[in-house]
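In keeping with the milestone schedule agreed at the kick-off meeting, the structural modelling team has produced records for the first pair of proteins. Each record is given below as a sequence line and a structure-token line. The laboratory manager (R.T.) confirmed that both were archived under the project's standard naming scheme.
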Amino acid sequence: MTRFTVNNQPVEYRMDPRTPLLWALRDASNLTGTKYGCGTGDCGACAVDVDGGLRLACQETIGALEGTFVTTIEGLSKDRSHPVQQALLASNIVQCGYCIPGIVMAASVLLRSNRNPSEEDIKGAIPNICRCGIYPRLIGAITDAARSARGEPPLSADPQPETPAPEPEAPE
């Protein structure tokens, strides 16, 4: 038996300790927000927070997680009120959505440790593959999430400076 905490609830899995966390979450706990993508740790669809760090659930065995705290996309916020979730919704960048839970988890781990990440910080912290190609807009959305978490308005909501209309030329 393996015991740890998932989304602030103690769990005890009566499964082989070599079982990947991904399958324990999906099959035994019915937490299907953590997605199976590649099974090799390359795509990031299965990203979860383990004790404040990003982990790929397809690569972690439940036996290795004894006594840890695991947070999945379902445990991040019940009402999608986390700043990362809000920023992704507000920016309307989600397309198919398959990679989004892993991206949200990676971004939330980043923002917990770095409240003002640079573009390079964001690129380095998001290992996820998105087949829809949301990357250019994702940087802006995560930047907006960081601003929101700091209590600042998102850049996308900052008013653009108005350019005064040119004065009409007087007829000669």
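The second protein of the pair:
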Amino acid sequence: MKIHESGENYLETILLLQRKKGSVRSIDIANELGYTKASISRAMGILKKAEFITMEQGGEITLTEKGMKKASEIYERHTLITKYLMDTLKVSKEVADGDACRIEHILSNEAFEKMKELYK
């Protein structure tokens, strides 16, 4: 199943919140992204159906192995693109972070692999 940009953003957010807080609930994602709880609930249903997350009775959201793999890939892209924009183009952290958030979803694997080679 192909995951859309918004789904990738949710997975990345879940990963970061999990690292920061240990456990994640829909309200945490809503607060982090500034979305309504209803929007988050719908998105979590889609991610659950695609087997990227599990949702416990108490509302805790956990990345599955598949979800963790995808979220980690997205986060790796985000951090490397941010670093590239800051180091090579000398843009501010805020601009680099915002641009990376958009670029990470459309950058080809070939270009990303070449970028990774620069930082080895």
